[in-house]
Structures are given as structure tokens and as C-alpha cells.
Amino acid sequence: MENHQEPIALSSFLIERRSLYHVKIVVTIKLVPNPNAEKRIDPQTKRLVRTGVETVLNPYDEYALEAALQLKERAGGDTTVTIFSMAPDSLKEGLRRALAMGADDAVVLSDEALEGSDVSATAHAMAAALRTLKFDLLVVGGLTDDSSTGAVPGALAEHLGLPCITNARKADIKGDAIEVERETDSGYQTVRGPLPALLTTALTFGEPRYASLKGIMGAKKKSIATISLQDLSLDRPVGTNGSKTELRSFAPPPVRGKGKIVEVSDGLSGAQAIFDFLADKRLV
Amino acid sequence: MKNVIAYAEHRHGETRKVTFELASEAGRIAAALGGKAHAVVLGPGSEQLADQLKSYPLDTIFLSEDADVEAFLLDPIVDYLEAAARIAGPSLVLIPNTLSGRDVAGRLMVRLHAGTVADVVELKVDGDAVVCTSPKLGGALITECALRPADYGVVTVRPNAFAVGTGGAGARLEPLAKPAGKNYCAVVERDVEEGAGELALEEAPVVVAGGRGLGGPEPFDTLLKPLARALGGAVGASRAAADAGWVPYNLQIGQTGKTVTPNLYIAVGISGAIQHKVGMRASGTIVAINKDAASPIGEFSDLLVVGDAFRIVPELTKLVETAKGHLS
Prior knowledge:
The structure holds 2 protein chains of 2 kinds. Chain A is of the alpha/beta class. Chain A is built from 7 helices and 13 strands. Chain A has one domain: Rossmann fold (3-Layer(aba) Sandwich). Mean pLDDT of chain A is 88; it is low at 1-20. Chain B has 2 domains: 3-175, HUPs (Rossmann fold, 3-Layer(aba) Sandwich); 201-327, TPP-binding domain (Rossmann fold), CATH 3.40.50. Chain B has helices at residues 17-33, 46-53, 68-71, 75-88, 99-111, 218-231, 239-243, 274-277, 309-327, and strands at residues 3-8, 37-42, 60-64, 91-96, 115-120, 122-126, 129-136, 141-147, 152-157, 172-175, 187-193, 206-210, 234-237, 264-268, 285-290, 303-306. In chain B, the strands form 3 sheets. Chain B has a 7-stranded parallel beta sheet, sandwiched between helices. In chain B, strands 13-12-14-15-16 form a 5-stranded parallel beta sheet. The longest helix of chain B is centred in the last third of the chain and has 19 residues, at 309-327. At the A-B interface, helix 4, helix 5, strand 7, strand 9 and strand 12 of A face helix 5, strand 5, strand 7, strand 8 and strand 11 of B.
């Protein structure tokens, strides 16, 4: 298949339009319970208890935000970074941290009817909300820390009809296209696709920045808008009833007891202790 | 869903163990559902892999050698998989839980109006539902999730979780027609393979991992690699080691890295913070070498040897090599 070439006059007009006006970047952020805190599941609802547990930005999404902020700095002009999150209204202030890092504003999709949504229902609702935002680039974290299905980015791309370029460690917006260096299971690739596009980030894109004091002060005045399902017209149910999967049971993993501790003073006795232990278990 | 489709990921016909795990499990679940098991192999080299898959309990192997599968990112794979699923009829699609597998699963879920469960380590048929066991919250909970009765289901399967069993009677090969009316736009301009020949970390039966206690990049090569080689395993690392630039990030095990479940995990100079623990706690046997008797890794290791790793590891490598020499 040959690449379709835009006439030069048109493509240079588009580049000019982008630099004169702006590239609009949207970053999705999930608020998740602190990964280091103890997690509980409500035995009745079989859902993760999110109240009374500190909420943080999903670690993978912080990398997505860092990538978006780097792209904004490089693109210049009036490029903006908008946060989009699906979250209970009571948690939305948690997004101030993302605004403090440098995002311009935030939009939260919040609705009780979304509770209990599985990944298919979640992606459906998120896509409907994102469609109302209009953007050139959607940046999504590769995984979520709490449910880690990793299916949301692909599902969003499919719903929104966007090219889906995943695991980016470098990206550059060039006119109406994005050039990406992405990690694969066995190495890396360079990929080029048209905008608008969906990008997910690898952790090698760059450590998420710390919010400056100025950023933290400024974030207090930034807008966090809320939309609900009433603002969208969904063609299928969401929430528990709109889900195609059903949680049947959950249990902690088998307890891993504290094992043997052996203190050694020299290399050979340490090695022998390990070797004997492994031989006993037929692992060597 | 009555049938089961295994997506066989490969690179020029070269594949990983997980492909055969999926093909074996597809046969088992299809038998339980009273349907048929199929595999889908896409891109250059497919014929070579399809030949290998013939000894697995499969009915049909759908394949296409279409070079677009490599020339464009992801889209052709999703199109071909959807086409195969439509031909096979209502089915459960098994996809390896790898970087690219996850991307495929999310898109196929939408195409097939399917439910999806990720990182599955066990599958059961219960009446008309398929029940998937998967660890959540970094392994803090093990969940059982049912795919509600529907035409299609999509699950991503954790490598190293299912047994490989052949016993096929020569599956039929069926070439897939190129999906019509597609205009692919994400172009793969360069495709570079790194670390070829290394045992994929997620599939290694033994992992020898190093952390901050190693103090620099050299011990990964001089200390850990020889031990891993002697044990037939792979080298991994903690986040501290990856962040310090001592090893590439694709060796990082833990919350923001890979999850591994080898038979044997040896942690060298790793303190065992929760960040690391969630990526390896489901390993068969865990042995730690650390100079600090109070390091958290002692809480979930089967054996903690308190001592100098720089002296212990070379001696251990020698003992393992000697034992192997006696056996062979």
C-alpha cells in the first residue's frame, strides 16, 4: 500500500495551523489505591474498598502525563494538556497532583451508574466521553496498577477509530503525524502514524517530574470539570449490568511463610547451604 | 462460546513456549465446551510455525503469510483475528499476555463485543460459563471471574501458567483471505531485535535477579549471568538496578516491570520492597542472598542466606556446574 501524500501546500498549512493555534493533548489518568497500602475487598459488593485508602495517580499514568508534558514543551505554541479521568466525584481532587505537574485542566466522568463496570463497559463509557473532548493526541498509561488488564488503550483506539501506537519510549509530533520509537517484546521499532492518534507510554519515556511549588499553587486555580452519563448518549448499559464479566470469588494468595535464615561467614558455606537446599527440593 | 482459538504470536516463524501452552489449553477447553480448538498464525513465517502446531490438539490452523502484518502496527493482526473468529463462530480467544498480546486483546474485545479477563493462570468450564482465575492488585488477591454467556470471549493468558501437551492428529491448514477495504496507517519504519537468543524472562524456569546490593552493572554480567546459565535460567533485576541504569528496563521485575513465576527465583542483593515482591511472589521456590538479616525479603523467602553475595554466588555457580557435569 502506498502512503497517501498530502499536497505540500496543504500539509504546510496544517503545520502552520498547529503551531499558530495548538496541539490538543488529552491524558487519561486513573486514581488508584496507594499500591503500598493494604487492599480490602467489600465481601458484599465484591469491589475494592476505595474509601479510607489513600488515592494516588496510577503509576503508569504518571509516565503518560510526563510524556504529554514533554511533547507540549517541544511543540510549543498554545499546546494544551487536558487530564481525563473516570472517577467517583469524591476522589476528583486527587487530580490536583496531575495539574500541579503541569497539566492545564481536567475533565472527570463521574456517575454512580458506572460503578461495577468491567473493562468493556469502562472503555465504552470512556470513549464516549473522550469523543466530546476533541484532541490531536490521546496519551494513555500502559497498565493500571489495580486491575492491570491492559486492555483499555486498545479498546479506546478501537472505539474512537484511532491509530494505536503503544509502549512509546520516544515520540515527536511532526506536523500532522507522530513519530514514535516503541519497545517490543524483543527490541524496539520506529513507527509513524497520522494524528489524531492514541499513544501509550513505556516507563523509559522518562521519570515523572515532581510538581514545583509554583505548580502546586497554580493547580489550585485550574479547572476540574465534571460530566455525567447524561451528557453522553451511550448505546449500551454500563456498570455491573453492562458488564460482560462477573467476579465470582476472590481470596488472598496462599500464605508464603517465613523460611529458613542461615548466616554464613564465607562464600563456600553460603553456596553449600543454598546448593543443599535446592538439591533437597530437586531444583539442581 | 463453544470453540476456542489460540493466537500464536511469532517472529518470522520463531515463537515462544507460551504459544504451545495456549495451543494445548485451547484443546483442553474446547473439549470441555464440546467445541473445536483452532489456532491463528499471522505474518511471514506462519507456515513454518503452523507445521509445528500440527502436533497439538487443534482442528484448524488459520494462517496468512501477509507481509502487511509486519509492515503495519497491530491493525492487520486485529483484522485477521476477527476474520478467523467469525469463520470459527462463537469462541473464546486465547491471547498471550505479552506487550503486543495485550494491545491485540483490547481491540479484539471491542470488535467481537466480547468480555475480557486478563493475566489468566487457570481456566475452567462451569455450565455455560468459562471461569478465569487471575491474580489482581499485584498478586494481593486471586480472583475468579466468569465470562458471562456470550458469542465471544477474549482472555490474555500468563506465560508459564499452563502445561504443554501435544497429542494432535494433524490439524487442517486454512489460509485466511486478506480482509477487504482496509487502509492501514501506522507504518513500522524500522524493526530492531535486541538481546536475541536470551531466554524470555517471563518464561524462564529459573530467574537470578540482582538489586541495589550489587553496586553497579558489572556484577550482572560477571556474577549473575554465569549462575543463571548454569541453572538454565535468565537474569532479572529490581527497579533500583534498572533505575540506576545498570540493566535495561526490560529486565526489571516488579510492579512497574515484569511479573515472573519461575520454579526457582534467586534474589541477590535485593531488599524485597513491595514494588519488587508483587512481580515475583508467585515463584515456586524463593532463595535470597543478602548481607542484611533483617531485609524484608526474608519475610517471603524459603531460604535467606545472610552473607557476601560476591563470594557466595561464584561458589554456588561452581557447585551447580559440577553437579551438572556428574549428571551428563
